[in-house]
Amino acid sequence: MQHAEKELVNHVKLCDGKGQLNPESIGYARQPLIESNLEGRFLRKKKWNYWCVYGEEIVFSATISHLDYAAVCFVYFLHYETQRFFEKTVTIPLSRQTKMGSHVLESCVFEDDKMSIHLVYDKLLDKTKMKVRVRDFDGDSLEADLEILHLEGNESLNVVIPWNRRTFQFTAKHHLLPTSGTVRVGEQEYHFKPEDNFSILDYGRGVWPREAVWNWGMASQRSNGQLIGLNFGGQWTDGTGMTENAFFLNGKMTKIHEDVLFEYDRSDYEAQWTVRTKFSDDVHLTFTPFFERIAKTDAKLIRSEVHQLFGYYNGYVRQPDGKKIRIKQLLGAIEEHDAKW
């Protein structure tokens, strides 16, 4: 069964004058047309800009998030071949050192002695300059200097998920963003080329319930001469009439108006996963992990547990005309996140 998802084509504000969900914002857009004008609702607002950058040798990620009661910012690095992995997290209660905008393409900055993350959007050049500095990163210093292009005409996934008028989420998933520059860890330097290396932006702004569980699967790679992006979400959108399911082919998005099921073994996350549409056969993929990232926080009132797997997608997704796009050994990630926040 497909959802009757409304496509938004004009600028709209996420919230009304009372800070509740604006009904006119419910839907999806191919461009970042939704303004996340969150106000009030202290302790319930959640904001984040998560970046994941896929290189030839490494995956690199930097995130600025604010959960209302604290800024939680983290950087991680995975070397594919050696599986060297390290993650650094900085948490600052009631932080005022974090600047986060209400538009997807807007600068976002976190500054601290231990870690600095600068995500500076240049509107004239339509690119994001990412500069990350971590003084002590697994005993080394880390420096990242990357330029991420937002290509004119390319489509993105921008969706408002309505649980009710008081709890809702705007999520923007921007795929296949060509990336150049370097990431240096100690004396080792890794280079990124825009023709082969791509970033994914996960932008979130919303008012969340106390507890939530979600799945997310994503990939953005060149494959057989085509640029393919995958974005699938599960559990958290169930029953809302909206999904964050879509795939991208050479910059154009195909929205999937149907729930997607994630099938996996919670006792062994590194076993093979299956991702498929609930009623049709428009999405039929397996995901074979080669590395598991685990991130846990347990501070009594606040709990978060993430199992994020890196690996390869195989299978197919179906275009509206019925033609299948074959997915073969497409590098990406998949996750389960359980939060009480």
Mean of residue pLDDT values: 96
How many β-strand stretches? 25
Shape: globular
- Mind summarizing the main beta sheet? 14 strands, antiparallel
Rg over C-alpha atoms, rounded to the nearest angstrom:
19 Å
Structural class category: mainly beta
Termini separation: 32 Å
What share of residues are in beta strands? over 45%
- The succession of helices and strands, N to C, reads EEEEEEEEEEEEEEEEEEEEEEEEE
Summed up:
With 341 residues, the chain is an all-beta fold. The chain has strands spanning 12-13, 27-29, 34-35, 45-54, 58-66, 70-79, 85-93, 98-99, 108-111, 115-122, 127-137, 140-149, 157-162, 168-185, 188-192, 198-207, 211-223, 226-234, 246-249, 252-255, 260-263, 273-277, 283-299, 302-318, 324-340. A hairpin with a 5-residue loop joins strand 24 and strand 25 (324-340).
Structure, explained:
By secondary structure, the chain is mostly beta strands. 0% of the residues lie in helices and 61% in strands. The strands form three sheets. Strands 2, 4, 5, 6, 7, 8, 9, 10, 11, 12, 13, 14, 15 and 16 form a 14-stranded antiparallel β-sheet that branches. Strands 20-19-18-17-25-24-23-22-21 form a nine-stranded antiparallel β-sheet, with no helix packed on it. It has a two-stranded parallel sheet with strand order 1-3. A hairpin with a 3-residue loop joins strand 5 and strand 6 (70-79).
